[in-house]
Amino acid sequence: MPLATRAAREPLHAYTCPICLAPPTNATLTPCGHILCGECLFTAVNAAVMRTGITGLGARCPVCRASIPGWDGRGGGVIGLQPRIMISL
Ligand SMILES: [Zn+2]
Ligand SMILES: [Zn+2]
After folding, report:
1. Degrees (nearest 5) of the Cα angle 43, 73, 61?
2. Which end of the chain has the least Cβ crowding within 10 Å, N or C?
3. Is the pLDDT of residue 6 over 70?
């Protein structure tokens, strides 16, 4: 279901990953409603978690710093919006 073609820049598809400033790859939704690349989100949150040394409890949204309950570093606590298929196609 191609909602947006590569040429089109529609307002509905105007999401930008706040970390890499590109349209999110493997868009992932945080509980606080922010959309980021899966990779950017995981990298940012895991780095923050490692800094605190408290797995799960240190997980915060890189955008608004809301905590992400259920974070396990493998997709827990966040929602993937796009299947991986979109990349390989
Ligand atoms: Zn990104
Ligand atoms: Zn947030």
Report:
1. 60
2. N
3. no
User: In whole angstroms, what is the distance from residue 59 CA to residue 57 CA?
Assistant: 6
Over residues 30-48, mean pLDDT: 94
Q: What is the pTM for the complete model shown?
A: 0.73
Please answer whether residues 45 and 34 qualify as being in contact, where contact means their C-beta atoms are separated by less than 8 angstroms. no
Instruction: State the distance from the centre of ligand 2 to the C-alpha of 86, rounded, in angstroms.
Output: 25
| Cα of 88 vs its chain's centroid, Å | 19
Query: Strands (DSSP E) along the chain, which ranges?
Result: 28-29, 35-36, 79-80
52 CA to centre of ligand 1 in angstroms: 23
- How many residues are there in the chain? 89
What the chain holds in terms of domains, given with CATH numbers, is 13-80 (3.30.40.10)
Task: Considering every ligand atom shown, identify the ligand nearest to the alpha carbon of residue 32 and give its number.
Answer: 2
